[in-house]
Amino acid sequence: MASLTIFADRKSQPSRAILIFCKVNGIEFEEVKMDLFKGDHLTAEYEAINPMKKVPAIAHGDFTLFESHAILIYLACCYNVSEHWYPTDLRTRAKLHAIMDWHHTNLRQGAAGYINTTVVAPKLGKPPNPEGAAECERKLIASFSTIETMWLKNDASFLLARDQPSIADLSLVCEIMQLEILSMEERNRMIRPYKKIQKWVERVKNATNPYFDEIHQLLYEIVASSKQQEA
Amino acid sequence: MASLTIFADRKSQPSRAILIFCKVNGIEFEEVKMDLFKGDHLTAEYEAINPMKKVPAIAHGDFTLFESHAILIYLACCYNVSEHWYPTDLRTRAKLHAIMDWHHTNLRQGAAGYINTTVVAPKLGKPPNPEGAAECERKLIASFSTIETMWLKNDASFLLARDQPSIADLSLVCEIMQLEILSMEERNRMIRPYKKIQKWVERVKNATNPYFDEIHQLLYEIVASSKQQEA
């Protein structure tokens, strides 16, 4: 098997999903730690790996790939991972594809959009954009509601009422974890009404630990340090 | 085989991609014509098929599915379609997944976003939004540039230098066709510099005709009628 290199910034939610997936499944890889704040993704060297200049990306021998969902599917098919991650049943697989497609323009736009608007943009000196933030929050709340009513119905453990997690669970939960960097008040306002979402996040965490916490360690440290600065 | 129903509005680019795909591949289906302008997607009856209240969606026996890329993949796997539409080679398939993931937040946001901002929003009585339109146009132009430099390199016939079209070619080209409803001046400004894109659109059209033109007939008629009104 060709050697696998993962170009990832653990501050990035799709980067974390891929790292956790590989660790949980015993897939050997070399992690190239990219720091987006230092512009590691903007070098000519990295552009040869991922012309989109984004993380994550992988190199598997001489084969390179970007887009985290495409990477998760590729790795699930290449390596001998448990079937629940990317089920072979056509209809289950189709429903998971639909959730991952939906994610791009719903949960991700809401969550990443809110953080970019309220945390990242001000640090880059951009003017406040309360309408933009409100629009992202509406999208995020609507996404939580969709996940609960459609894919975590009844007492579902994981998406589509499955009893083990899939790559879609991992991708969506890593996105939701990014909300940790918001203030407690903001995060509670958004997520507190969604009890099924909270339980589901815990379940994905438990199903993938100790790797989930290991890969999220950097995020936890950033959160702790910013709370200390606030206090 | 269970019977297939496609809920589609031919004014919608992902609806057209699915209809063309089925016709080209001799997949039998019943088309339920939805009119988004009349709110056909907002009925309780349709919500049972697609709770997202969007088109397209399919019902295959008692199995329902939304998100056009997930539908195209599902149909390609269920029916005996030519392998070039959704190649079995893992790496080729992964690259096509990446293009389709990329599409959601790039070409689609640019093209559909521009049309929504400049054509749909004014019809709904919303105020002009020149900054929004300019942002969408930037995204669209950047997407054209990415497609040409990454996936239509050299004298490529289809995406990834393949000699036959894939579901990604069909999805992206149907998106680009939507620009027909803009004024000639606007469309030329955007697409004229991109000769490879123009040739590729023609190739996908030729590879899927007479069905491509048949399914686009409604769009052509809307364009002709609005040109007549202008004149």
UniProtKB/TrEMBL annotation, chains A, B:
EC number(s) on file: 2.5.1.18
GST N-terminal domain mapped to chain residues: 2-83
GO biological process per UniProt: toxin catabolic process
Molecular function via GO: glutathione transferase activity
Keywords of the record: Detoxification, Transferase
InterPro entries the UniProt entry points to: Glutathione-S-Trfase_C-like (IPR010987), Glutathione-S-Trfase_C_sf (IPR036282), Glutathione_S-Trfase (IPR040079), Glutathione_S-Trfase_N (IPR004045), GST_C_Theta (IPR040077), GST_N_Theta (IPR040075), GSTT1/2/3 (IPR043377), Thioredoxin-like_sf (IPR036249)
Catalytic activity: RX + glutathione = an S-substituted glutathione + a halide anion + H(+)
Top EC category: transferase
Domain GST C-terminal residue range list: 89-231
Pfam families membership: GST_N
Similarity remark: Belongs to the GST superfamily. Theta family.
Name of this protein: glutathione transferase
